[in-house]
Amino acid sequence: MAGGGHRRPPGSRVGDVFELVRLGLAQTRGDIQDLTGLSRVTVAQRVNALLDGGFLVEGGSRGSTGGRRPVELRVNVDHARVLSAVVDTTHTRVALTNLVGDLQDDEQLDIAVDGGPDPVLQAIEESMRTILRRRGLTTSDLAGVGISVPGPVDPRTNRPSEPPIMPGWDAYPVAEHLHDTFPVPVVVENDANAMALGEHAAHYPDCPSVVLVKVSTGIGTGIVLDGEVYRGVDGGAGDIGHVRLVEHMDAVCRCGSHGCLAAVASGHAVAESLRAAGREARSGRDVRRLLDAGDLVAAHGVRTAGRLVGQVMATVVTMLNPAVLVLGGDLATAPLLAGVRESLYPLTLPRATRNLDVRLSGLGTDSAVIGMAHAVAGRVYSPAAIEASLS
Fold first, then answer.
1. Which of 71, 119, 164, 217 could tie 89 with a disulfide, CB 3.0–4.6 Å?
2. Which fold would CATH assign to domain 81-190+369-379?
3. What span, in angstroms and rounded, lies between the C-alpha atoms of 251 and 264?
4. In the predicted model, is pLDDT for residue 8 greater than 90?
5. Mean pLDDT along residues 98-127
6. In terms of pTM, does the model score above 0.85?
7. Where do the structural domains in the chain lie, given as residue ranges?
């Protein structure tokens, strides 16, 4: 749950002290003193309350320039568990993790999102109950439940907001539905945002800006700035799959518009072109299966799609000047990476890409699971929540 590039949390209450440790800004009592200006006695009181409450644990001793070695403080990642559901267009993964996303159990569900929310959420609930029973746990062992969906989520309502490829899900009370079964906080997040958060937490905790592009059956972008997901006013930030390409206005998108990036570069679009070439492919997963089998036609199609993705990402990179651009999703393979690089660099000034690291995801399908664990932890273990718990 460590992070970097964050602003120092305001205040010096016990919840703020916990936040310093959670974000990786403080690792010892001395660090807390330096950052807050609190006295040694007050820091000891704050830390002892967090230790007694099970929120922090003590680790080993750090090196010292003299005198007694300071003892490291760490978040107790096993203080509670998180149940997450990563909903994709054709399948869903349900996982049990600790607070930093370390996997403890999971199940795969073959259920399509276009069947509407009720059957998908019912299958998720059943799977979650099964996992809890299998692990000998109850809802009292949970910090919360997280669910990521392949569409925008309104940050004000915690509900899907006009998702183009999720019929019946618009404004559906996903959190309320799950809360009826699991009476714990429920966090709903866009899948690309969850993946970006997971990549940032696992591989780039000290990086101030990480952008992830998910290229699967659809296309979306997650943006993490200063350790926080940037969602935009209505949750639509990063929805690059529906940026229109004027040279492809003849392509009809599943959202109803013409010329969308997703209509020509998504896994769904590549699968359509592969079917025309005699391949069995209907989704991003099918395209990935062909890529893994060494199909050269599939590799060519994905590389071509990558060039189009890179064309759109050139604008994103120019605007945000991120440090890392991660490619994730079913099509995140060497051909996609090559295609993105081929168009991204010529379309941007050297200043925008001089220090840009463009790479494939190092987490694969785990990125959203890890991201949802961190999203839930960030909500449940906020300074205000810690204060309320210890009061």
1. 217
2. Nucleotidyltransferase; domain 5 (3.30.420)
3. 7
4. no
5. 96
6. yes
7. 14-75, 81-190+369-379, 195-367
Q: Cα(270)–Cα(284) distance, rounded to whole angstroms?
A: 8
Q: What is the pLDDT of residues 230-244, one digit of tens each?
A: 999 999 999 999 999
- In whole angstroms, give the CA distance from residue 206 to residue 203: 9
Task: Report DSSP state, residue 45.
Answer: H
- Beta carbons of 202 and 245 less than 8 angstroms apart: no
The H-assigned helical ranges of the chain are 14-22, 29-36, 40-52, 117-135, 174-181, 191-203, 261-265, 267-276, 284-292, 296-320, 334-344, 350-353, 366-380, 383-390
Please give the Cα distance from 311 to 182 (Å, whole number).
Answer: 43
Q: Answer yes or no: same fold for 81-190+369-379 and 195-367.
A: yes
Both tokens assigned to 379: 């909500």
DSSP character at residue 283: S
- 323: how many CB neighbours lie within 10 A of its CB? 16
Q: Are strands 186-190 and 142-149 parallel, antiparallel or unpaired?
A: parallel
| Nearest CA among 16, 36, 79 for reference residue 384 | 16
Q: Can you tell me the distance from the alpha carbon of 175 to that of 119, in angstroms, rounded to the nearest whole number?
A: 15
* Topology of the domain comprising 14-75: Arc Repressor Mutant, subunit A (1.10.10)
Report the b/e string of 104-129 with b at 16+ CB within 10 A.
Answer: ebbbebebebeeebeebbebbbebbe
pLDDT band at 43 (very low <50, low <70, confident <90, very high): very high
* Distance of alpha carbon 336 from alpha carbon 359, whole angstroms: 10
Residue recorded with tokens 């002892």: 48
Distance CA 247, CA 264 (A): 11
CA distance 241 to 219: 5
Q: What is the pLDDT of residues 265-321, one digit of tens each?
A: 999 999 999 999 999 999 999 999 999 999 999 999 999 999 999 999 999 999 999
Structure-block tokens of residue 63: 């090196």
Tokens standing for residue 358: 């463009």
Q: Which two tokens stand for residue 107?
A: 């199940």
Taking 70 as the threshold, does the pLDDT of residue 5 lie above it?
no
Q: Which CATH architecture has domain 195-367?
A: 2-Layer Sandwich (3.30)
Give the model's pLDDT for residue 12.
82
Cα of first residue to Cα of last residue in the chain, in angstroms, is 23
